[in-house]
Design brief:
The protein has a 6-stranded parallel β-sheet, sandwiched between helices. Helix 1 links the parallel strand 1 and strand 2. The chain is α/β, with parallel strands linked by helices. It is built from 10 helices and 12 strands. The protein has a domain of 214 residues: NAD(P)-binding Rossmann-like Domain (Rossmann fold), CATH 3.40.50. Helix 2 crosses helix 4 and helix 6 packs across helix 8. It is globular, with a radius of gyration of 19 Å.
């Protein structure tokens, strides 16, 4: 058990979408000293910047959120960059945590690391049971390799590192850029623009028959804080709701929230991505985590934030 109020907690990616929620969750849980490096000051794809970050900020606990991410289109456009950047950042953060002797290192991975045809619900022991879905495999493989590095460093060097696997995240502050956003912000923006332009039709990628599990960012942040405080095991941990929804149904729910009355056309020449995603969340309950936000409530809050932004 870590006393958060006594630690100097460094959060890579702490100024980003998930990071802002994680900052608040740590402060609400009693943390007093949060260290938030910015990418313009520390390019963690380089060893030099990682060494300097640890030296400058002097952390006792590190939470590694920093990542280069995006939806299917962004993964198709930048597979090399996504592999390199995520592998390099994780590699340097973990190695320097070992060298610097931090008390705890929490690495946040991705559900994209699971095999394409993983049995549902996904259990952590199946993480390496097959190759990830092709459109996001470079990103997924890079991130799941970090779980192996953490286990190896724990075995050889005694580094207290834990690895978390959150479901697809969404919520206020999400990325709504049409070139790189994930499915929920992309749908909110598409339907919002269609309403403002009085469009009679919206085109969406795929068949709509793939399923996803979504985790509200505030819940994810609370899970990360609980794991930092209470979890100490080499085994990875899923963070999620344990519930899935078809993309077609999700689109219809968001269209309703956005007051879009037109037609939805599915472009079946474009990929669906992984066929299904749904997590077994048993392991996370052992350290007190259960998601609290329903999908309907989370979507409403996200839509309201987007409208007010």
């Amino acid at each position: 058990m870590i006393d958060l109020g006594q630690e100097r907690i460094l959060i890579t990616g702490g100024a980003g979408f998930l990071g802002t929620h994680v900052q608040k969750a740590f402060l609400d849980s009693g943390a007093r000293t949060l260290l938030i490096p910015r990418s313009k000051d520390y390019d963690l794809t380089t060893e030099e910047a990682a060494v300097r970050m640890y030296s400058d900020l002097d952390p006792t606990v590190v939470v590694h959120l920093a990542a280069e991410v995006g939806g299917i289109g962004a993964n198709e456009a930048h597979p090399g960059r996504f592999f390199y950047a995520n592998m390099a950042m994780g590699l340097h953060v973990i190695e320097q945590a070992r060298r610097y002797g931090v008390k705890k290192l929490v690495v946040v991975g991705t559900v994209c690391g699971y095999p394409k045809h993983c049995e549902v619900p996904f259990v952590e022991s199946d993480l390496f049971a097959g190759y990830p879905e092709e459109t996001n495999a470079p990103y997924g493989v890079a991130k799941r390799a970090l779980s192996v590095m953490l286990q190896a460093y724990r075995a050889e060097y005694g580094l207290c590192g834990v690895y978390l696997l959150p479901a697809n995240l969404y919520g206020p502050g999400d990325n709504f850029d049409p070139l790189s956003s994930h499915v929920i912000p992309a749908l909110i923006r598409k339907f919002g623009e269609a309403v403002s332009e009085s469009a009679s039709e919206v085109e969406l990628w795929g068949t709509g028959q793939a399923s996803r599990e979504f985790l509200f960012a505030e819940d994810a942040a609370r899970g990360i804080v609980l794991a930092t405080e209470r979890y100490d095991s080499p085994e990875p941990v899923n963070l999620g709701t344990g519930q899935e929804i078809l993309i077609r149904e999700l689109a219809e729910r968001i269209a309703g929230l956005m007051n879009y009355k037109g037609h939805i056309r599915w472009n079946t020449t474009r990929p669906d991505g992984q066929p299904r995603r749904c997590l077994d969340t048993t392991r996370a309950r052992a350290f007190g985590f259960e998601a609290s936000a329903s999908l309907n409530a989370g979507l409403s809050r996200t839509v309201n934030w987007w409208r007010a932004a």
